[in-house]
């Protein structure tokens, strides 16, 4: 073998080893990636049951139900992005900052009875909203950054469970008709 041929085989072997190492790294990273989904995305096409995802949105007012199984607290609540709502089940102690009408991110997977969370993350102050939740609100048309900061928790507190299941905010619910104006006198 000539010197050029040996050098060529060495370069080919190095490229093959580098390619194999890159493929192994990508395979290892792909199993650790956790995607963010919104309730409307889950309603459109639910992720597979074996896939861990982060579900983000606002906790629907009046939807939190707490119970105990033995010594383990169990919480069920609805998370909405203003268009759809998903029921979340969580076994464990909820964060101190967990409130109805506040933004939340639940890490877990879809099951036949809803979303089962292994971890619930709540906001840390009244101005914080996870980036993904803010983007979901923008995408759903519930917030336009040109007109100020994201909606406050107080504006979401008026949303009821029925409105979230229908995908309508409480402000869009049909109201009683206004009385007709009286005719002007001459």
Describe the structure.
By secondary structure, the chain is α+β, with helices and mostly antiparallel strands. Helix content is 31%, strand content 26%. It has five helices and seven strands. The protein has helices spanning 3-32, 39-44, 131-140, 153-157, 161-166, and strands at 35-37, 53-59, 65-69, 72-80, 85-91, 103-111, 114-122. The chain has a five-stranded mixed β-barrel. β3 and β4 form a beta hairpin. The longest helix is centred in the first third of the chain and has 30 residues, at 3-32. The protein is elongated. The relative contact order is 0.14. Residues 157-165 and 167-183 have low confidence and may be disordered.
Write the layout of secondary structure elements.
Elements: H1 3-32, E1 35-37, H2 39-44, E2 53-59, E3 65-69, E4 72-80, E5 85-91, E6 103-111, E7 114-122, H3 131-140, H4 153-157, H5 161-166
What level of helicity do the residues show? Answer: 25-40%
The largest beta-sheet arranges its strands as 2-4-5-7-6
* Rough outline: elongated
Overall mean pLDDT score? 75
Uncertain runs are 157-165, 167-183
Task: Give the termini distance in whole angstroms.
Answer: 113 Å
Strands, count:
7
């Amino acid at each position: 073998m000539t010197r050029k041929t040996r050098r060529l085989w060495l370069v080919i072997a190095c490229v093959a080893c580098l390619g194999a190492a890159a493929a192994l790294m990508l395979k290892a990273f792909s199993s650790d990636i956790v995607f963010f989904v919104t309730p409307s995305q889950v309603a459109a096409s639910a992720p597979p049951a074996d896939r861990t995802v982060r579900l983000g949105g606002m906790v629907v007012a009046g939807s939190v139900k707490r119970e105990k199984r033995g010594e383990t607290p169990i919480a069920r609540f609805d998370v909405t992005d203003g268009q759809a709502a998903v029921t979340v089940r969580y076994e464990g102690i909820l964060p101190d900052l967990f409130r109805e009408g506040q933004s939340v991110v639940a890490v877990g997977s879809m099951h036949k009875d809803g979303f089962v969370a292994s971890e619930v993350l709540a906001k840390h102050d009244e101005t914080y909203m996870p980036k993904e939740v803010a983007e979901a609100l923008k995408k759903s048309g519930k917030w336009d950054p040109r007109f100020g900061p994201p909606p406050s928790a107080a504006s979401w507190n008026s949303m009821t469970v029925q409105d979230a299941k229908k995908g309508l905010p409480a402000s869009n619910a049909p109201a009683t008709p206004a009385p007709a104006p009286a005719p002007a006198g001459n």
